[in-house]
């Protein structure tokens, strides 16, 4: 780091530290994510989120206006696209984050930024939403930290209602059918234990990728030849030529065109464990109902 950059960073760090007396209790949230703000502590007014799901959660809790920066992948709601983009899991821009003077930074579980920010006195909350239950706990704890407890409770109830509504729209002919959900190249699948797997199960589908393989395992393509799915869901970009994969042209889902090929926006919706979970379920139902008859 150059001398001028070091001076700038030192000044920014000092500015961040000067915020700490007002939020000293909140700083403990970085170590104990379930704690709520102590009485008399100034409300969170400058928030940085470093995960698209967490950005969406903050906005769903009514605090979008307090966001001062996000990770590079946060795109929803549209208003966050104009905010400073501060890197991602592997390359969070610590200096720029500190310069923005946040009194709360919300991180995903694999971010490398947490310890460095805490060392600079910046309050940090870390969440790991791998399942529907995790997501609900995250929304409730984040709601407590933001002073939006009632709104968070209402949001969790709304998610449950939206999931139930999506399940009731699922045609009876589709219930019990087997499904393979691809979420990335290699190929990478969503197993039955992942939050995506829980979503398709809630809709009455049976995932051919078991949870014993992990949440989002890279699979051997031969797995689908042993357990051929009735339906395939995944990104259009990686599934467009799936018939070229060895043996996959024989799969029932491919032969009968039982394929939900999702564009980038719909894959983002499906792949983010956040407050739009019910919307994602509704999107899947719409896609499945539009498939040609078997």
* Most strands sheet: 5 strands, mixed
Report the top-level CATH class of the largest domain: Alpha Beta
Average pLDDT works out at 87
Number of distinct beta strands = 9
CATH architecture group name of the largest domain: 3-Layer(aba) Sandwich
How many helices? The count is 13
Q: Pairing-aware structural class of the strands and helices?
A: alpha/beta
Unreliable spans = 1-41
Count the domains. Answer: 2
- Percent range for helical residues? 40-55%
In sequence order, what are the helices and strands, one letter per element? HHEHEHEHEHHEEHEHEHHEHH
User: DSSP strand (E) fraction?
Assistant: 5-15%
- Rg, nearest Å: 21 Å
Beginning-to-end CA distance, first to last residue: 62 Å
Approximate shape: globular
Instruction: Tell me the CATH superfamily of the largest domain.
Output: Nitrogenase molybdenum iron protein domain
**The CATH topology of the largest domain:** Rossmann fold
